[in-house]
Design goal:
Mean pLDDT: 92
Largest sheet: 6 strands, antiparallel
Radius of gyration: 24 Å
Shape: globular
Low-confidence stretches: 632-645
Number of helices: 25
Helix content: 40-55%
Number of strands: 17
Distance between the termini: 22 Å
Length: 645
């Protein structure tokens, strides 16, 4: 796990000092070493910060070079099947300089197999850049699920790329400006799908994609090499057969993700997903550490006692992080700094604090349960919305649209019915009801909350964000397969742009690598290739296939308990902890910038428990850091900082 940065310039030489500063702005991603390579003609530069996890020797440092093939690589991530691939390459005649570096496996595999075949063989999380001197090309690639980030800045004659936006902002040519259209869509989802970004001139490489640049012209060709539905095989299994096959894949995935030359831990809640991971990991690795976020003052959110009992039963070295209002408030500014883009998820703070605890405990690798609910359908609101969609699908097409239009006209009159009105509008326009698992402001809500300083886009949010995914889905699957659509849109959008960045960026703030066993691409392909009845397409209980497996080793009452979810008590803190500082600052920010309508913000803050205010608050802090580089008086003075201890 590392941080990478690069610079390609046509007709000008690059500045080694600026590239070094870009690299070292990400020291938190790689405290164990740094490297820099600049081409002989000084038109290409590759920079790297290293977090040593696999092959800790200096020979595994980056940038890494293959002089025989005239190739050079910088890479962020882990290749879990690197040992098998190395053996295969050695049998084919490849000679290795390192003992067991996965970086060298990518480099040698590229030369031996070519890019497409290499990507097909890799099992892991990665973002890498390979400069091929013989071909005069630079390749930028991102892993299938989008676990590792990769950002771009392009102008005629200049290409910059990095693991973090803050590295790009070091360069004097990169402006700090807000993309108005993307901001509008961001308010609907708490995040943006690649290649979109909240910065005007910065893009993201999409998950499962790569870009090839011609070095002489910087002309680019973009390729999508993986899609979870297009790549999946169709399986006809009984529930028992599917459970057996999936259990074997889960065991393999966990085993792969225990591969490290360092200590390994697990982010443990009181829920099913992380408990199952710990049980499975503990069979193979008997010296695990566990880390749990607790809220002693808020019993409805407190899972520490259950997690502690699990840790004691399995004999882990356990760390409990109790989060009170003061600690939460103290972390918000640093969290926004490390987010790069605002990630309007309140649980970023507990992930940040758990990562801090892992660093202090000397555990740089942790397993986490992200992806299970999206694959196996574990959210109650998904089940309700799926039932509604199936009801709509039973209606004649000529009847559904007018019913939706009539319902929307009635419901929109009542602010308390804004969300149902939004779904009625989608029904009227013959759009899918489900647009993703993280929905914030409705269309009407955005029109109210957004101030005069923001230009409204001409393109609707559905057309801009959801329609491309909906079209792709319809080309590969039955559009009436609601369950598959739910998994698909979240694996292509919400996971890589909200939940996985949350784990990556909060973890890497403390040089801690997060691994996600449920999102091994083999598991994703297997689940999406199953018949509907095995993907929880019916019934009112989520995750039946996974629970079938979990019940083989965990108590039935625990497996089938009501889902609680990983949350933070921001609703409870709204009128207490946040009110004293941040909410007043939010009103002042709205008045000063015109980004939000101040009167609408005041109305939102008067509502007792609405969590939407947190999206605005997180954005305000991010905007103050990255766009204005100032902070309102009530927030205190902020300068870009390192980790708080």
């Amino acid at each position: 796990m590392c941080g990478i940065a690069g610079w390609v310039s046509v007709g000008r030489t690059i500045d080694a000092g600026i590239l070094t500063e870009m690299r070292d702005s990400m020291e938190h991603r790689g405290p164990d070493g740094s490297g820099l390579w600049i081409s002989p003609n000084q038109s290409i530069g590759l920079a790297h910060r290293r977090l040593a996890i696999i092959d800790l020797s200096p020979e595994a440092n980056q940038p890494m070079h293959d002089s025989a093939a005239n190739t050079h690589i910088i890479y962020n991530g882990e290749i879990y099947n690197h040992r098998e691939l190395r053996k295969e390459l050695e049998r084919s005649g490849s000679k290795f300089e390192t003992d067991h570096s996965d970086t060298e496996v990518i480099l040698k595999g590229y030369s031996r197999w070519g890019l497409d075949e290499l990507l097909r063989r890799l099992n892991g999380m990665f973002a890498f850049a390979i400069f091929d001197g013989n071909r005069g090309e630079l390749v930028l690639a991102r892993d299938r699920m989008g676990i590792k980030p990769l950002y771009l800045f392009e102008t005629p004659g200049t290409l910059l790329f990095a693991s973090e936006i803050k590295a790009l902002l070091v360069h004097p040519e990169v402006p700090r400006s807000l993309h108005h259209e993307n901001f509008w869509h961001f308010l609907a989802f708490r995040s943006l799908p690649a290649p979109r970004c909240l910065f005007e001139d910065i893009q993201k490489v999409p998950p499962g994609a790569y870009v090839v640049y011609d070095i002489d012209s910087l002309s680019a060709t973009r390729h999508v090499y993986w899609d979870p539905i297009r790549s999946c095989a169709r399986f006809e299994h009984s529930m028992a057969e599917a459970a057996d096959a999936l259990e074997e894949l889960l065991r393999s995935s966990v085993t792969y993700r225990l591969e490290a030359d360092t200590d390994v831990g697990v982010f443990l809640s009181g829920g099913l997903d992380s408990t199952y991971l710990l049980e499975t990991a503990n069979e193979r690795h008997r010296s695990l550490s566990t880390f749990t976020a607790s809220y002693e003052a808020h019993p409805d959110y407190h899972e520490g006692d259950v997690a502690k009992l699990t840790a004691q039963r399995l004999g882990t070295r356990h760390f409990d992080v109790d989060i009170d209002d003061e600690l939460y408030l103290q972390s918000l500014v640093d969290v926004a700094y490390y987010q790069d883009e605002p990630i309007a998820a309140p649980v970023c703070v507990p992930v940040y604090l758990l990562s801090q605890a892992a660093e202090k405990a000397g555990v740089p690798v942790v397993l986490a349960g992200e992806g299970s609910d999206e694959l196996f359908i574990g959210y109650d609101n998904w089940l309700r919305l799926r039932s509604a969609q199936k009801l709509v699908d039973r209606l004649p097409a000529a009847f559904a649209a007018p019913v939706g239009a009539l319902s929307h006209g009635i419901l929109k009159q009542f602010t308390s019915m804004e969300r149902p009105a939004e779904f009625a509008m989608r029904m009227a326009r013959v759009q899918p009801l489900f647009w993703g698992g993280a929905m914030d402001f409705t269309s009407n809500g955005r029109h109210r909350i957004v101030g005069k300083a923001i230009d409204r886009p001409e393109t609707s949010t559905f057309d801009a964000i959801i329609q491309p995914l909906w079209t792709q889905f319809g080309e590969m699957a039955d559009s009436r397969d609601v369950t598959l659509w739910m998994s698909y849109v979240d694996t292509r959008f919400r996971l890589p742009e909200l939940m996985l960045p949350r784990l990556d960026k909060m973890g890497m703030a403390f040089s801690v690598e997060g691994r996600v066993p449920f999102l091994d691409h083999r598991i994703v392909e297997f689940v999406m290739g199953l018949p509907r009845n095995l993907r929880a397409d019916t019934g009112g209980t989520g995750k039946p296939l996974f629970k079938n497996i979990a019940a083989r080793r965990l108590p039935q009452d625990f497996v089938y308990q009501r889902k609680r979810g990983f949350q933070a008590p921001v609703k409870e803190w709204k009128s207490k902890a946040f009110k004293s500082i941040y909410l007043e600052a939010l009103v002042r920010f709205s008045e000063r910038t015109g980004i939000f309508d101040a009167d609408s913000v005041r109305d939102l803050l008067q509502k007792r428990s609405d969590r939407l205010y947190f999206t605005l608050l997180n954005f305000m802090i991010w905007y103050s850091i990255f766009i204005e580089n100032v902070v309102p008086d009530l927030l205190g003075e902020l300068t870009p900082r390192g980790r708080s201890k």
